[in-house]
Amino acid sequence: MMKLLISICLIALTPLCAFAQRNEVLAPNIRSLTVVADQNWQSMPVVQLGGSIEIGFDDMTHTYHRYAYKIQPCNADWTVNDQLFESDYICDFSSDNIIEDVKESLLTTKEYTHYKFNISGILLSGNYLVTVYDNNDNDDPIIKAYFMVAEPKEKSMGVSLSATTNTDASINQTDQQISMEVSFDNYNVSQPESQIKTVVLQNGQWHDARVNLKPQYIMAGKLRWEHNRGLIFPAGNEYHKFEILQTDAASMGVDRISWDSVEYHAYPFINTSRPYYVYDEDADGAFLLRNSDNYNAENESDYMLVHFQLQCPEVKGADVYVNGWFTNDRFLPEYKMNYNPNSQRYEAVIPLKFGYYNYQYLMTSADGQISRLPYEGNFYQTENRYQAFVYYRPLGGRYDRLVGYNELKFANR
Question: In the record, which residues are listed under signal peptide (predicted)?
């Protein structure tokens, strides 16, 4: 049974792995990338037509760069769509979009310059790629960021979600299973298997996306996924969390703060194995940049070297990473943990800006599989958010419309 489940999951993951929507920082001097939809930091970067996306980042210098950006539409699989003209998908768009909201850091030990811009006026629903590049340096790209625009609710396909811990793999143990129904009465769908594409995520994590799973039921104007083994997700555990808000006092989840005459260091409490489920309210991986009084947080917040520590036996044949929205769900060397045999801890040091952070520990095996660290625990009671995206392309159409989006917060209470 377990081998069958793993095979189904791998099949589901394959189509999107190469094109997964995960923000990417391409320059070493860029940090703290945020992509926020309609000022909701806990939401995925999804807006309805007419909404606004705000993108911000820090350049770790006080040297001004003439950063600019371009927007490209993407297909449902996140490949760039070259069938559309700019005038098709965005109004009042200039090919020379210079970022003009620029602020140098003030009263901080680490110098940086904060850049920010807003995107609005998108005319078509679907997926979008934003590339930020340096006009002063051969137009080299420094950031690739992604967002989604959904049809208004009155024009959307109906997307309903439900979750249960009584799954086709276990009953009230380690898993949660999603059921989904899509209603398309108002759409001309003659070939649902090719015209409709779906993606289901847990906590916005694209590395475990379930893509284009075959529905169990195809009815007049409806598709339904029920008892679908590809929609069984390991429940995991609540995210760890901490805040760094100032340099002179430790905040929530932080044991101590120190100064080495060059930089500040923050030490969140050492994480240990979690053999039992304990409820702890979290933001399911999201993060929020802020300081103690939340005043001018964009350019008056300092940076600290944050020391992550996990006390547990070493996992052989796997690499362990710190993971959260602030890592862009990427498994890069800067987020990899090293095992210290003397302290018997996994350790990583990551420079982070003042703010509230959620994180978890994940591991990658030699064959590239990503899974939760066994010492983190895996409990059916865990509160998780599930997101479903439904794309539609009419016969002969030039782009994939995002015609349905829904999020379910599962709470076993």
Answer: 1-20
Closest by CA position to 251, among listed 204, 197, 293: 293
Do the domains at 16-150 and 154-235+382-410 have one common CATH topology?
yes
Sheet bearing 384-392, strands edge to edge: 210-211, 196-202, 384-392, 401-410
pLDDT for the residue numbered 138: 85
What b/e readout covers 95-118, taking b as 16+ CB neighbours within 10 angstroms? eebebeebeebeebebebbbbbbe
Give the fold, CATH level 3, of 154-235+382-410: Immunoglobulin-like (2.60.40)
* CATH annotation of 16-150: 2.60.40
Contact (Cβ atoms closer than 8 angstroms) between residue 357 and residue 134: no
List, in order, residues 6 or more apart from 13 with CB less than 8 Å away: 208, 209, 210, 211
Confidence at residue 15, expressed as pLDDT on a 0 to 100 scale: 43
The answer for residues whose C-beta is within 8 angstroms of residue 255's C-beta and 6 or more apart is 267, 268, 269, 270
Point out the residues of the chain with pLDDT beneath 50.
Answer: 1-19
Q: How far apart are CA 180 and CA 390, in angstroms?
A: 11
Q: Which residues contact 335 (CB under 8 A, 6 or more apart)?
A: 321, 322, 323, 327, 348, 350
Domain residue extents for the chain: 16-150, 154-235+382-410, 240-376
Rounded CA-CA distance 64/394 in Å is 46
CA dihedral 293, 296, 298, 300 (to 10 degrees): -80
